[in-house]
Specification:
Protein name: Acyl-CoA thioesterase II
Strand order of the largest sheet: 1-2-4-5-6-3-9-12-11-10-8-7
Largest sheet: 12 strands, antiparallel
Radius of gyration: 18 Å
Shape: globular
Family: Belongs to the C/M/P thioester hydrolase family.
Oligomer: single chain
Pfam families: 4HBT_3, Acyl_CoA_thio
Keywords: Hydrolase
Strand content: 35-45%
Distance between the termini: 45 Å
Number of strands: 12
Helix content: 10-25%
Structural class: alpha+beta
């Protein structure tokens, strides 16, 4: 297991403070200046799962309220809203300094049979034909300022291979359609709950970037203020995140300083395992 994977698994292992009250580590995630949104979602889902031992999450809905400070721990308060015959509902409030930074509602469902259909997986090159994001970042590292280079090239817990990668420093306007393959080999052997938590963490990767693509924007160009505003996720099938999954994303609308993004997550053999939707801030920066 890589050091990056160990750090992530430690982040997602919450400390129980009291009944329905947990503490999570703020630092060590994807960004050094504020807590990565997927980290808070994943920790909040972990807190919700702590009181739901017998059924799996089928949907979660989250609102980002304030930016998280990675130098501080995050407190998660769980409201056991309902324990029904088929569905269980939990509401989780994430707090720092006594102020809410995220609200999350999650629903859990017993296993049931029923009618089935799904959209087909997009026809894109497989991960074996693509260059890893780590290799791409290594190739661009000499163009990044020294102060950003360590963060730009550091080891990540997930392996990502983009189908249509862009130049991070000199992007061109292109389609909002955004495909990437992703896996975490350290997820092998994880229980179904942790598989969900890991996928929830990764579901924030690149999603808002779909809305940036048609406008020639990236995180490394100081032209827009960006932040996730809300995040919704539905789990459709069992997750085995040690295997390759295709994260297929698009952005059907941007306007009013916001971008709307959608994502579908497929196994390599074409099973749809999760769907995602998110709206993010895309505020033009004025000189």
């Amino acid at each position: 297991m890589t050091d990056a994977a160990k750090i992530l698994l430690n982040l997602l292992d919450l400390e129980r403070l009291d009944r329905n009250l947990y503490r999570g580590i703020g630092s060590g995630g994807e960004t050094p200046t504020r807590i990565y949104g997927g980290q808070v979602i994943a920790q909040a889902l972990a807190a919700a799962y702590a009181s739901v031992p017998d059924r799996l999450c089928h949907s979660l809905h989250a609102y980002f309220i304030r930016a998280g400070d990675p130098s501080l721990p995050v407190i998660y308060e769980v409201d056991p809203s309902r324990d029904g015959g088929s569905f269980t509902t939990r509401r989780v409030v994430a707090m720092q300094n006594g102020k809410q930074i995220l609200n999350l509602a999650a629903s859990f469902h017993i296993s049931e049979s029923g009618w089935q259909h799904q959209h087909s997986i997009p026809n894109v090159p497989g991960p074996e034909q693509l260059v890893s994001r780590a290799e791409q970042h290594s190739q661009h590292a000499h163009r990044i300022t020294a102060s950003q280079r360590t963060e730009f090239t550091r080891e990540r817990p997930f392996e990502i291979r983009e189908v249509d990668p862009r130049d991070p420093l000199n992007p061109v306007e292109t389609s909002d359609i955004n495909h990437m393959w992703i896996r975490m080999e350290a997820a092998k052997g994880a229980n179904p709950q942790l598989q969900h938590i890991l996928m929830a963490y990764a579901s924030d990767f690149g999603l808002l970037g779909s809305a940036l693509r048609p406008h020639g924007l990236t995180w490394y160009r100081p032209e827009a203020m960006t932040a996730s505003l809300d995040h919704t996720m539905w789990f459709h099938a069992p997750v085995h995140f040690e295997n390759w999954h295709l994260y297929s994303m698009d952005s059907p609308f941007a306007g009013g300083g916001r971008g709307f993004n959608r994502g579908s997550i497929y196994t390599q053999d074409g099973q749809l395992v999760a769907s995602v939707a998110q709206e993010g801030l895309m505020r033009p920066l004025r000189s």
